[in-house]
Amino acid sequence: MTVVDAATDLFLGSRCPGCERPGRSLCHVCRTEVMAGHVRFVGRDPSPPHMPLTVAGGDYVGVLPRLISGFKDESLTGLTGLLADRLLRALACLLAALGRPGERFHLVPIPSTAAAVRKRGMDHTHVLARAVAQRTRRDGGLVLPVRRVLRTRGGVADQVGLDAVARWANKFDHVEVRRSGPARSVPILLDDVTTTGASLAAAARALEGADTPVLGAVVVAATVRRHLPASSPAAGAGPR
């Protein structure tokens, strides 16, 4: 710990959001752990109907859950770039496996409930999607606009404590397309975490119903309970 970090902790109580070591920002140890995360295709077992092919930027273990929670529930927006970088790696993996030359894409963040947005003071998945889009432009790659075409209707319960089947039932009838038009590009879903796949499946189902099937989905992290069916297009592809 440097003298500046010690002074910051003494006068401001500033600590690393990952491990709570005294300091001015995310410490080197926590940053290194996140950046070393293994990008991989993930599935859910059991898998909900309409679950899209999904790539995660890391496992929902170690320091990453604390950082995701701090970002969305404590407004630690200084973590946006780090989490967006994990999404960008997942996006590159998804496009390498399924993208076709000349095809156009756009990012569709999974919507939060209006109550959650009011409580947090931001729509956290939209913030992450914009950060990813900015990085694609900065790197001179694909131009990926962000389109908020989905919304959550009332009646969605808190997912915490629900089993997989209950989560599916809670989500499936409460995600809808808020506006649609000619399909000029292919949607890619984006979320922070996938647990049972209920949110991603509900979003994919809604878009399929509007004749805009998704290419797949990217998430910052996936819980470790996973299964990759042998028939998946990702089988054998591996992370890139």
Structural notes for this entry:
- The protein has about 240 residues and is of the alpha/beta class.
- The protein has two domains: about 1-35, no CATH class; about 40-220, Rossmann fold.
- Helix content is about 40%, strand content about 15%.
- It contains eight helices and seven strands; from the N terminus they run H-H-E-E-H-H-E-H-H-E-H-E-E-H-E.
- It has helices at about 5-10, 30-35, 65-75, 80-100, 115-120, 125-140, 165-170, 200-210, and strands at about 40, 55, 105-110, 150, 175, 185-195, 215-220.
- It has a five-stranded mixed sheet with strand order 1-2-7-6-3, sandwiched between helices.
- Helix 8 (about 200-210) links the parallel strand 6 and strand 7 (about 215-220).
- Helix 4 crosses helix 6 and helix 7 (about 165-170) packs parallel to helix 8 (about 200-210).
- The radius of gyration is 18 Å and the shape is globular.
- The two termini are about 35 Å apart.
- Mean pLDDT is about 85; it is low at about 1-10 and about 225-240.
CATH architecture of the largest domain: 3-Layer(aba) Sandwich
CATH structural fold name of the largest domain:
Rossmann fold
The level-1 CATH class of the largest domain: Alpha Beta
Oligomer: single chain
- Beta-strand content estimate: 5-15%
Helix and strand run: HHEEHHEHHEHEEHE
Report, as a whole number of angstroms, the end-to-end distance: 35 Å
Q: Which strands sit side by side, in order, in the main sheet?
A: 1-2-7-6-3
Helical fraction: 25-40%
Tell me the count of domains.
2
The tally of beta strands, per DSSP, is 7
- Count the DSSP helices: 8
User: Could you tell me the radius of gyration in angstroms?
Assistant: 18 Å
Classification by helices and strands: alpha/beta
> Which stretches are low in confidence, meaning pLDDT under 50 for 5 or more residues running?
1-12, 226-240
| Major beta-sheet overview | 5 strands, mixed
pLDDT average, as an integer?
Answer: 83
Morphology: globular
